[in-house]
Design a protein that fits this description.
2 copies of one chain form a homodimer. Chain A is an alpha+beta fold. Chain A has 6 helices and 5 strands. In chain A, helix 1 packs antiparallel against helix 2 (23-33) and helix 2 crosses helix 4 (57-70). Strand 5 of chain A pairs antiparallel with strand 5 (126-137) of chain B, so a sheet runs across the interface. Chain A binds a DNA duplex through residues 19-25, 40-42, 45, 54-59, 61-62, 81-83.
Amino acid sequence: MNAIDDTTAALAAFDRAGYRLTGPRRAVADLIAAREGHFTAADLVAEARARRLGIGRATIFRALDLLLELGVLERLDLPSGEHAYVGCEPIHHHHVVCSGCGRATEIDDAGLRAVVDTIADRTGYAIENHRLELFGRCPDCRATGGANS
Amino acid sequence: MNAIDDTTAALAAFDRAGYRLTGPRRAVADLIAAREGHFTAADLVAEARARRLGIGRATIFRALDLLLELGVLERLDLPSGEHAYVGCEPIHHHHVVCSGCGRATEIDDAGLRAVVDTIADRTGYAIENHRLELFGRCPDCRATGGANS
DNA sequence: CGCCGATTGAGACTGGGTCTCGACAAGGCG
DNA sequence: CGCCTTGTCGAGACCCAGTCTCAATCGGCG
C-alpha cells in the first residue's frame, strides 16, 4: 500500500507532537506501514524480533500507545475479543474490517450521527463517545470466492 | 432489578440448549442476576469467592462463555480496553453504557440498519456483523451532578 | 561539543483467560 | 430406586497481553 506515506505520516505525527524521532520509533513506524490489514501488538513484536531489530516489547507498546493517542492508529476490538490496530486518518470515523483478509476500510459518518442523536434522545443519556465496528467480506475476498468462512 | 427473572432466564436458556442444570451454573446465574450494570469476569470470581461458594475460576469462565453463546449475556469492550459483560435479551441490539454508574441500557436498531446498508453499498463489503457501543452518562448520573468525570 | 532529560531494553510482574486431569454428579434408563 | 454414561467441576499449572522499574543510552538544543 502507501507504505512510505504511512511511515512519514507517523513520523511527522511524532515530530509535530514534540516527541523525539528515535530509531526505534522509526522502526515501529516502518513495521506498521508495511502492514496491509489490522495487526496485533504481538504481531509487531514477533516481526521486530524476526527482523532482529533489537526493539524491546515495552518500546513497541509505548510507540503503539503514542500513535493511538496521536490518532494515526486506531484500536479495534475483534469479535474474538482480541485487540488489533489499524493505521488511519486522525479524524473521527469508523472501520469496516474484512473477515477474509483483515484489511480495514475507513468510513465516515454515513448517517450515524443521526442515529446517535436519536438514541440520546430516546434514552436520556448524554452520549460522550461511540464506536461502530463492522465486519464483513471485502469486494476482493468476495470476488475470489470465500478464501475463508 | 429483575433478579429472579434474569436468573430463571439464564437457567431456562441452559436447559433449552441441552446443558445440564448444575449447582455451579445456578450460582453463576444468581451472581449475574444480582448485578446492576456491567461486570467483569474478575468481579464474579471475586464475589463468588467472597461468598464462599466454592466455585472455581474455570467454571465461571465456562458459564460466561456459555451464556454469551446463548445470547443471554453480551460482551462489551470498554474504552479502557477491558472486557465486561451485561445481561440482556437474546435478540440483536446494542448498548448504551453509563460512564458514571456502569449501568447498560439496551437499544434497538434506531436507524442503524439503514446506516449499515449505506456503508455496505458504498464500500462494496458484504457486512456480516456489526457492533455499536455508546458511552455516556445516564439520566440519573446527570441529575446527581457528575458523580465522576 | 557537551549536557539534560526523554527514551530505551531487559526482564520482572500482573491480571485475564485457557487447559488439563482426576473426581464428581446430573439425569436417562432399566 | 439405583446404576451407568457422560457432561461438568475445581484446583492449579500455564499462557499471553500488557505494564512497570531502572539503569544505560541517545536525541537534539545550546
